[in-house]
Amino acid sequence: MAKTKVKFICQSCGYESPKWMGKCPGCGEWNTMTEEISKPASSRRAVFAHSSQTLQKPSPITSIETAQEPRIFTNSEEFNRVLGSGIVKGSLVLIGGDPGIGKSTLLLQVSSQLADNGNDVLYISGEESVKQTKLRADRLGVKSDKLLVLSETDLSFISKAIEEVNPSFVVVDSIQTVFHSEISSAPGSVSQVRESTAELMRIAKTKGVAIFIVGHVTKEGSIAGPRILEHMVDTVLYFEGERHHTYRILRAVKNRFGSTNEMGIFEMKESGLEEVENPSEIFLEERSKGAAGSTVVASMEGTRSVLVEIQALISPTSFGNPRRMATGIDHNRVPLLMAVLEKRVGLLLQNQDAYLKVAGGVKLDEPAIDLAIAVSIASSFKDAPPKPTDVIIGEVGLTGEVRRVSRIEQRVMEAAKLGFKRAIIPEANIGGWNPPADIEIVGVKNVAEALQKTLGG
């Protein structure tokens, strides 16, 4: 018999070591190395022998025929948009999010919609019994005979159930509770998660079944376990939002069948999650008009333009080093733009604390929001509110210039739709498109000119 080898694997990054160490050399985390028994060499040779029998011959890339991947649509336009216009057969989709954010609720609603459209759906819960799942289904109004529920964590029984039922869609909630009987480590470990995901990927590709798996997240907000889990699946979705607020954001961070910048917005209600058709109105409904430090920017989230409010609070510091804090935007961008305002415009901000926030819990990372941030900081510092009907768009360079942005026409049209009367945009973006008739377009070359147009100086 082949000897089994003992190795220690970091549960945070997947680093392997022949001996136990208190601190992982890979990620620097403490007490994350756990003992796992590797597969015998004979088992690995058997796997390689089996794979060699089914080895395909290489083909010229010019001789390969391509076809558009067929999509299956749900009744949720937001869910379809994030996946790239629907669900692809044979795809493996990973959904992560904080505990209690609504991952199971979302997938149960999607399963109900697919079942109502005549598709066989198998919902496998490893954390709840079938009675607990039924209680949630009653609350959501889920009633379909084509939605089958199973409470199981053994991967071999899950594979047999998929073989017998032959569903079109499978939901596994969650991957950290599933275990492979031939692996000695505990469920949720690196080896278990890797092997379980690989087996589910094989089932999805060979049978053409779309499989959704739920992944737990760590306190840092990333999916628990090594990054290999995200590399193995076709699509990675994050379900974000504050537990004490009703709005939830479904965001794609990896998608082999569509864009990775799409965003879907839902509202959590007693009857489940409901789509938000116009998110710009939601993000601006509680805006204080005429307040200093408040600006509105049109940001692109995939193919959708969303208007959000950026708030800034500038106050004299009480410490030796001024504080720079930001929520919803990269905190490194705040001191950079403050340095541009101080050097190119002449605002004395080196002894001021700066607090910035994107209202509504949205996270913005595109450069087109630079000009709105700079105007918010200057507005709060001067205590001069901009016009509430202005929308500000533009990227700011280190020399103070305002650079062009993409999809300016779509951004301005969204602003005009919500009643904004003036758009401050880069001068390089003027021309080549037809702006709406009920909104004034003002082009600016640099930050100083933008402040002159918005704050009067």
UniProtKB/TrEMBL annotation:
What InterPro entries is this protein classified in?
AAA+_ATPase (IPR003593), DNA_repair_RadA (IPR004504), P-loop_NTPase (IPR027417), RecA_ATP-bd (IPR020588), Ribosomal_Su5_D2-typ_SF (IPR020568), Ribsml_uS5_D2-typ_fold_subgr (IPR014721), Rubredoxin_2 (IPR041166)
Q: Which residues bind ATP?
A: G97, D98, P99, G100, I101, G102, K103, S104
| Assigned GO CC terms | cytosol
Q: Name one GO biological process term.
A: recombinational repair
Q: Which residues form the RecA family profile domain?
A: 68-217
Isomerase as a keyword of this entry, yes or no, is no
Keywords in UniProt for this one? ATP-binding, DNA damage, DNA repair, DNA-binding, Hydrolase, Metal-binding, Nucleotide-binding, Stress response, Zinc, Zinc-finger
Tell me the Pfam families matching this sequence.
Answer: AAA_25, ChlI, Zn_ribbon_LapB
- Carries keyword Cell cycle? no
One GO term in the molecular function aspect is: hydrolase activity
Q: Where is this motif: RadA KNRFG motif?
A: 254-258
Q: List where this protein forms a coiled coil.
A: none
Q: Where is this region: Lon-protease-like?
A: 353-457
Q: Which family does it belong to?
A: Belongs to the RecA family. RadA subfamily.
General function of this protein? Plays a role in repairing double-strand DNA breaks, probably involving stabilizing or processing branched DNA or blocked replication forks.
What domain comment accompanies this record?
The middle region has homology to RecA with ATPase motifs including the RadA KNRFG motif, while the C-terminus is homologous to Lon protease.
HAMAP family in UniProt: RadA_bact
Task: Name it.
Answer: DNA repair protein RadA
